[in-house]
Amino acid sequence: MPGAIYAEGLVKTFGDVRALDGVDFDVPEGSVLGLLGPNGAGKTTAVRVLTTLIEPDSGRAEVAGLDVVKHPNEVRRSIGLSGQFAAVDEYLTGRENLQMVGQLYQLSGRDAKRRAAELLERFNLQDAADRTAKTYSGGMRRRLDLAAALVVSPPVMFMDEPTTGLDPRNRQALWEVIEELVAGGTTLLLTTQYLEEADHLADTIAVVDHGRVIARGTSDQLKDQTGGDVVELVVHEREHIPLAEEVLRRLGDGDTSLVEHTRKLSVPAAGGAKLLAEVIRELDARGVEIDDIGLRRPTLDDVFLSLTGHTAEDEAAGTAGEEDGQAGTKAAGKRAATEGDK
Ligand SMILES: Nc1ncnc2c1ncn2[C@@H]1O[C@H](COP(=O)(O)OP(=O)(O)O)[C@@H](O)[C@H]1O
Ligand SMILES: [Mg+2]
Q1: Which intervals of the chain are annotated as region Disordered (predicted)?
Q2: What is the pLDDT of residue 323?
Q3: Which of 191, 241, 251, 303 matches a 20 to 30 Å C-alpha distance to 158?
Q4: pLDDT digits (tens, 9 = 90+) for 71-82
Q5: What residues sit around ligand 2, an ion, with C-beta below 5 angstroms?
Q6: 102-156 pLDDT, tens per residue?
């Protein structure tokens, strides 16, 4: 029997763009699927199809056992959604918005009030609770939108990049609410650009790129797929980065990656300790001084790099740690750029 969220061969095109190019997944009831992928991968499109906002060109999807094309109204009644198309009423206060959602879902007046107060506190909106939402900053609106999606616990929930733009404290608060929701039996599909988030919250992960699922499994299974360990090193002199990179490229078993500001380089190393010794000898022979070197287990970032040829950090950098308009100009510019191509 298909799970609570089921997709088979979903295709959706916009002009020449194949936003979804044959996507399949099957999410067992009560579990969390993390849809992981860079900007433009097709994550939001998948969520929009599954939540009945758009119809697929072909393929089939079921949510809570209901076909999303044949029974959109019934599907909508069994899902919750938070994301890039939220319904917050600007002219109501934060508290009124949340109470209204509660009443829409038939909570008693008293329960709606209690749930609203609880969520306002969790998302650190107490101080702004009685101001109209139109006075809220971007970060506050984002939190209100998330709170609104969490007023009641629907059987199936979709969250499209729920923590993009949240600061660490609010991200943590949201993770806790999500864990409670899932413990209560809700099935969740979550999209994210943050590997750490998928690692933490998802039971299974589907890595999406160019409208296709290019890998799937638990976080551990994905890490095992990259084949063995990773050699990671920090060069002492910035000027030695190209030399060290060349050595790793030659001796390693895959694409090298570099974090420029920490002078940290890494490469997959199926050869393990033997390769480590070789790298050390070669760097020494070339006069490359290193501050640190070691073998470590791959992270999801390594998985992502080996699958897509670029790090998730490249993608997420523009939106990380941004909250309430305090973003640096670089981050703000990058965010505007990524939103522009939606
Ligand atoms: N309404 C639309 N019209 C035209 N192109 C779209 C539309 N929605 C999405 N796309 C394109 O489809 C691709 C996938 O987009 P999207 O699903 O938003 O990716 P993600 O959420 O993973 O960043 C992108 O190339 C995007 O530009
Ligand atoms: Mg998106």
Answers
A1: 312-342
A2: 41
A3: 303
A4: 998 998 888 777
A5: 43-44
A6: 888 788 999 999 999 999 999 899 999 999 999 998 889 888 988 888 888 889 9
Query: Which ligand is nearest to the Cα of residue 37, counting in written order?
Result: 1
Distance 160 CA to ligand 2 centre (A): 7
Cα–Cα distance for residue pair 197/109, rounded to 1 Å: 35
- Counting atoms of ligand 1 from 1, which one is nearest the CA of 211? 14
Q: Which residue has the tokens 């070197």?
A: 293
**Which of 17, 189, 193 has most ligand 1 atoms within 8 Å of CB, for mutation?**
17
Buried b (16+ CB within 10 A) or exposed e, 33-58: bbbbbbbbbbbbbbbbbbbbeeebee
Other CB atoms within 10 A of residue 218 CB: 13
Task: Report pTM.
Answer: 0.76
3-state secondary structure of 199: helix
pLDDT (0 to 100) of residue 324? 40
Domains of the chain: 5-217 (3.40.50.300), 224-300 (3.30.70.100)
